[in-house]
Amino acid sequence: MKQIINNTDIEEIDFRKIDLNLLTVFAALMRENNVTRAAKRLGLSQSAVSSALGRLRALYDDPLLTRTQAGMKPTARAVTLYPRILAALDAIGQTFDTGTPDPDHAFPPLLRLGLSDDYELAFGPALAKAFRHHAPKSRLVFHQVNSRLAAKALVDGQVDLTLTGGGLTGSQVKRLALGRSDYACLIDPASRSEQHSVSLEEYLARPHILVSYDGLTGAVDDVLQERKLKRTIALSTSHYGALSYLLAGTGAIATIPRHVAKAIAGQTGLAMIACPLSLSDYSVDLGWHFASARASGILRARDLFAGIVSDGLTA
Fold first, then answer.
1. Same domain, 205 and 268
2. Which CATH number belongs to the domain containing residue 107 in this structure?
3. Residues whose CB falls within 8 Å of the CB of residue 282, separated by 6 or more in sequence, listed in order
4. If you compute the radius of gyration of the chain from its CA atoms, what whole number of angstroms results?
5. Where are the alpha helices (DSSP H) in 135-226?
6. What pTM did the predictor assign?
7. 106-116 burial string, b = 16+ CB within 10 Å, else e?
8. In the beta sheet, which residues pair with residue 282?
9. Are the CB atoms for 119 and 163 separated by under 8 Å?
10. What PANTHER family does the record point to (predicted)?
11. Domain interval for residue 255
12. Cβ contacts of residue 226 below 8 Å, gap of 6+?
């Protein structure tokens, strides 16, 4: 059997002796790195997936995936096979593509979008509304992921798509640039008479609320350091959604991405004002695992979400 797999002459391969369903199991195991999750994805029992893995090992004469404390780790042979098997499954799937998907099955029954809460606050309502309209029988899950963890979340199969501010790299992921965002400030308008701008002097004099995953510094501090300036960070939080409560009734100021500043100001009594510092803008990207190229439902959701976010960034 090993000689059959390694033989490049397709006419000499006896496909009657090969269960092609094993390839689907292999792809799920590589995506999930876990027998239980792969079984759930495939709608099979755990014992059936374990049995299929045993047959795959015999077929390729290789362990393919070995158990570790962190999950199933693919062998070098499995890593080499993975893109080839995905391409084979894609080719087979395309033979059944009529070009007119059933509206009830055009999207996956469960779609997981990885994003940080600034994008969830700014675009979540529009994304959810559009998804309900186009996929009324499907469920959308917003999964908290920041730009540093987005690629890993895609590769590990934790999410189907990601929405991040750049930082998406890796040979197994692809990205689509949707537009660019920059920064603005939020304040309680009751703390000053002029609500449209703030001088650099006043900006530095005010206490600052920082939104950061590590709670220490942000993009503002890097720019201030270059100019030999410093601000006073009175409070740090990891959630943009907390700002409406933390800023209200105070003289503090928060410098955050413009898209979420606009969303929060539109739903609260806070005022969005221009930042007196020149801060670099950045790309907003939609990412997906390269294996999703054969998952038409995920790609339809990608295209749907891309249009909504792109329009929102330019509004």
1. yes
2. 3.40.190.10
3. 165, 166, 180, 181, 182
4. 24
5. 150-155, 200-205, 219-226
6. 0.69
7. bbbeebbbbbb
8. 181
9. yes
10. HTH-TYPE TRANSCRIPTIONAL REGULATOR LEUO-RELATED, TRANSCRIPTIONAL REGULATORY PROTEIN
11. 183-273
12. none
